[in-house]
Specification:
The structure is a single chain. This protein is globular. The longest helix is centred in the first third of the chain and has 20 residues. It has a 4-stranded antiparallel beta sheet. The mean pLDDT is 92. A hairpin with a 6-residue loop joins strand 2 and strand 3. The protein is built from 2 helices and 4 strands; from the N terminus they run E-H-E-E-H-E. The protein has 104 residues and is of the alpha+beta class.
């Protein structure tokens, strides 16, 4: 089965999380960033970052994987599961630009 893209939304446990993180939550978010960097290096992460929606900030990521189950297993290792929940949705046919050459 060919790889597919999956959109992941990280919804924090409280609406003002981004503005009111405790020191422990900040440490969790740093570990989350390290987790994402590892997935980027492994080739499973396409893009990730915060979305500054006026209705509430949330995290988003797009993963490339063989199945939704694979993405869910991967997210079980994400430290951010301690501060919220992941909503995973398969994406349809997508247009993705190739990575830029190094140094451009």
């Amino acid at each position: 089965m060919p790889s597919s893209l999956f959109f992941v939304r990280l919804v924090a446990n409280r609406p003002n999380f981004a503005m009111s993180m405790t020191a422990d939550e900040q440490a969790t978010m740093r570990a989350h960033g390290e987790f994402l960097q590892g997935q980027l290096a492994a080739g499973t992460l396409v893009v990730a970052g915060p979305v500054f929606d006026p209705a509430g900030v949330f995290g988003m990521a797009v993963f490339e994987a063989e199945s939704m189950e694979e993405v869910r297993r991967l997210l079980e290792r994400d430290p951010a599961k301690a501060i919220g929940r992941h909503e995973v949705s398969p994406m349809g046919p997508s247009i993705v630009r190739p990575a830029r050459p190094a140094g451009s």
